[in-house]
C-alpha cells in the first residue's frame, strides 16, 4: 500500500535531512515508500491474473480508511540496526482486517503469511553503518523531524508490486486495486 504522493514527498525530504546525521548504507527511494500487506515472494508471472482476481475479491467488502505515520523504530540489534522504520497510526484495525483478508484470499493459491506477527511499517533505511553506536538519541532526532509532518492519508486503493532489484525505484506497480466506496 503506497503512501500518498504528498506524504511520500514529505517523508523523502525528512529522510534526506536525516541521512546527513544517520549513516545507513541504503535509504529507501521516495517512490518506494509503502506498507506491505503481504509479502508474496518469487511469484510465477503466469499466476498473476489469478492472484489479482483473488486480491480484488479480498477487498470487495472493505471501505476506505485513514492512516498516518507515527513513531520511529528499528529492527535488529540496537547498536547497529538492520532497518529504520516509521510506524503506522490511524485506523490500524481496518489495515489489519485488509491484511487478514489478503492472507486468506492468497492461501488457496499457495501463498502463506509470515510466521511473525504482522507489524505494519514503512521502511526508511537499511544497514546502519555509523561509526558511533546507534542509540535512542538517534530515534529522538527522527521524532523531531517526523513531528513536523502531521500528515495522514485516505486509503482508497492499494497495489500489487513486483520488485526490480538494483533499480531505483525498485518497485513496479503490476495492478492497482480499488477499495470500494461503500
From TrEMBL:
This is RNA 2',3'-cyclic phosphodiesterase. InterPro entries: Cyclic_Pdiesterase (IPR009097), RNA_CPDase (IPR004175). HAMAP family: RNA_CPDase. A motif (HXTX 2) lies at residues 121-124. A motif (HXTX 1) lies at residues 34-37. It catalyses: a 3'-end 2',3'-cyclophospho-ribonucleotide-RNA + H2O = a 3'-end 2'-phospho-ribonucleotide-RNA + H(+). Belongs to the 2H phosphoesterase superfamily. ThpR family. Keywords: Hydrolase. Its EC number is 3.1.4.58. Hydrolyzes RNA 2',3'-cyclic phosphodiester to an RNA 2'-phosphomonoester. It is an enzyme of class 3 (hydrolase). The active site is at residues 34, 121. Pfam families: 2_5_RNA_ligase2. The keyword Hydrolase applies.
Amino acid at each position: 500500500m503506497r503512501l500518498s504522493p504528498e506524504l511520500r514527498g514529505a517523508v523523502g525530504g525528512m529522510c534526506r535531512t536525516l541521512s546527513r546525521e544517520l549513516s545507513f548504507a541504503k535509504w529507501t527511494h521516495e517512490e518506494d515508500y509503502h506498507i506491505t500487506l503481504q509479502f508474496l515472494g518469487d511469484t510465477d508471472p503466469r499466476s498473476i491474473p489469478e492472484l489479482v482476481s483473488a486480491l480484488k475479491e479480498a477487498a470487495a467488502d472493505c471501505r476506505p480508511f485513514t492512516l498516518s505515520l507515527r513513531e520511529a523504530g528499528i529492527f535488529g540489534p540496537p547498536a547497529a540496526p538492520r532497518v529504520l522504520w516509521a510506524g503506522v497510526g490511524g485506523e490500524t484495525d481496518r489495515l489489519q482486517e485488509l491484511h487478514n483478508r489478503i492472507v486468506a484470499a492468497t492461501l488457496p493459491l499457495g501463498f502463506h503469511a509470515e510466521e511473525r506477527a504482522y507489524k505494519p511499517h514503512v521502511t526508511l533505511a537499511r544497514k546502519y553503518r555509523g561509526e558511533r553506536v546507534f542509540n535512542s538519541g538517534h530515534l529522538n532526532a527522527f521524532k523531531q523531524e517526523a513531528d513536523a509532518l502531521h500528515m495522514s492519508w485516505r486509503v482508497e486503493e492499494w497495489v500489487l508490486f513486483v520488485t526490480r532489484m538494483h533499480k531505483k525505484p525498485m518497485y513496479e506497480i503490476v495492478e492497482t486495486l480499488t477499495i470500494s466506496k461503500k
